[in-house]
Design a protein that fits this description.
Elements lengths: L10 H56 L31 H10 L53 E3 L21 E5 L10 E6 L4 E5 H5 L18
Antiparallel strand pairs: 1-2, 2-3, 3-4
Length: 237
């Protein structure tokens, strides 16, 4: 009876087999690695954004102490080209947006780093403060109208965050510390344009803490408008 010989794999066939198995492993693991990398990147940007808002909260407190007599938040006069919301009942130049409110921290010197006003996930750019305007003189440090921003981009793309606009304050009066409850929103990611984050908003509260609200919680309903629903209905960019 003739002997049968089992055919052995050649080195080339073994190498091809190893290569196929490696490609299959990469194909299996790559989506997971990519997903994890994307999640880590999003969380990193979110952390940086939260840090920006915390610094804005600190700067607002400093403004109250140094310019607001321990009571008043910024009260900037707005560039006359800015179109205030319908029904604001303000003359051109009288009102100010949330972007101006926050930019006043830079004009007044309590916030020396203009990059804090830019969310890392946005396309916004204030060109190292060049688009934020300057203080033309507001008296002897008094918290009166005068922190006037000559915005090159009056659509708010120089500031990534929304905050208190004059027309969101009852009666259009200057905002005071006494007007704010600890749970009131003082600033957040931009509420008027494309969201800075695709899954929610970083929010600064009046007591100084920062939280992240998922988009579904912010919108409140399927076709809700950002900035028109609680808790972001009292701020503007």
């Amino acid at each position: 009876m003739p002997k049968t010989h089992k055919r052995a794999f050649t080195r080339l066939e073994i190498l091809v087999l190893i290569l196929i198995m490696a490609l299959l492993a990469v194909g299996f693991l790559l989506p997971r690695v990519t997903h994890r990398h994307g999640r880590v990147h999003r969380e990193s940007n979110r952390t940086m954004c939260k840090s920006n808002l915390r610094q804005l909260g600190i700067a607002l407190s400093m403004y109250v102490d140094t310019h607001g007599g321990g009571k008043h938040y910024p009260y900037p006069t707005q560039d006359g080209n800015y179109a205030e919301p319908k029904g604001a009942d303000l003359e051109p130049g009288e009102g100010f947006s949330g972007a101006s409110f926050l930019a006043a921290l830079y004009w007044s010197g309590v916030l020396p780093e203009p990059g804090v006003l830019i969310c890392p996930t946005s396309d916004d750019d204030n060109h190292d403060g060049a688009d934020l305007g300057t203080n033309p003189g507001a008296g002897d440090g008094a918290n009166i109208p005068g922190w006037n921003g000559q915005f090159e981009q009056p659509d708010g793309t120089h500031v990534s965050y929304a905050s208190k606009a004059q027309w969101t304050v009852p009666g259009g009066a200057p905002l005071t510390v006494d007007d704010m409850k600890p749970e009131d929103v003082l600033a957040s990611d931009d509420t008027d344009a494309e969201p800075n984050h695709d899954d929610g908003f970083c929010v600064l509260y009046a007591d100084g803490h920062v939280d992240f609200l998922p988009t579904k919680k912010v919108y409140g309903r399927e076709n809700g408008m950002v900035g028109r629903v609680t808790p972001l209905d009292k701020i503007d960019n």
